[in-house]
Amino acid sequence: MAIKVYALLAIIGLLALCVPKYSFSVTITQLTDDGGKDPVWSRDGTDRIVYHTDYHVLVITPLGGEPYEITSYYSGILLWGPSWSPDGGRVAFYTLKDGSGIVVSGGGAASDSTAMIVGAGPAQSRPCWSPVADVLGFDMYSSGSQEIFVCPVQVGGISEREQIVSSPGSSRLSWSPDGTQIVFERDSKLYVAQTDGSDSPRLLLEIKDHSLLYPDWSPDGQLVAYTEVWGRSPNTHYILKVIPVMGGTPTVIIPDTSTKIRGPTWSENGQHLAYFNDTGIMLVENLPPLSDVPDAGANPVVLSHVCYPNPFNAATDIKFEIAATCHVTVDIFSLSGRLIARLQDRVRSAGPHTVSWMGDGAGGQPIPSGTYFYRIVAGENAVTGRITLVK
Predict the structure, then answer these.
(1) Fewer beta carbons within 10 angstroms: which end of the chain, N or C?
(2) Does domain 301-389 have CATH number 2.60.40.4070?
(3) How big, in percent rounded to 5, are the helix, strand and coil portions of the chain?
């Protein structure tokens, strides 16, 4: 069963500028009708989705094949939140069996081989496996609030857990492709946090009077998919969107619908999304290439931008052209989203401009070699780019 959904995307410029339109169509196909939930795509090149029903964890290959169960030992016991290991050979999930906790099972055929990783205690939720290491992230009720922890996956014993977000967290989190950050939902806002707990979470998106749920990081590290939920049952509406990780204008993938859209997950190549509704797992095909999804960089207010030289050693110039007089800021951020330096903060006239960066932080403090983001905000609109410092 395929349903053709047409999404018309437009980004509105300032001061009644001519508005370019971005349009594409996506195809939505029902993969399962078993009430499956929480799909997660593998990252090992096998193009598999793991998901769960109320009492089973199953795997399906979206482009062919039937679902198969991988948790015979846990059949009939409430479980949820499966997540793939980086090598695709194991699956972590939460179960109420054997005292409750997060366990790891084989990712192949139905198996009784399991190991408890995070033992019984405060209520835990969906584990999320790091894409680059044997480390799980999950939220847990502790000291009266819901907080986010990480722990290593250790065979033969209960793992030590470490708190990384001390304020109330979320029941769904997602790792960045390099394993250094997580995105999560809290109080209907999306946040990005360092997985080593070194920085306070950075607010990515807040829109009042509705919920932002189920964030999932794209495989290229540039976008976050999420579900926007409006209203209350029976008049609830759902929208599937993506937003640039560094902030900007969200893009609609599936427009306003009364059919549930929950738990979006990216395929490894970024060409598909899967999600679940009341009937089962759904597949979204014919996505535009990630590089073509309009973000803040597609805004007509900033007509062009470039950084040269890049990579650089002593100094580099960030050149940009704006279409109208407006307030402009130019900032440098670390890959974790921490502000390194503000290079510009003033009203600029329409036309070309150049801002130089000497490769230092606020107040002239030295910073290490590495890759950074520059961000140009013109009025309410923004563009971003990567910049590499080599000392």
Answers:
(1) N
(2) yes
(3) 5, 50, 45
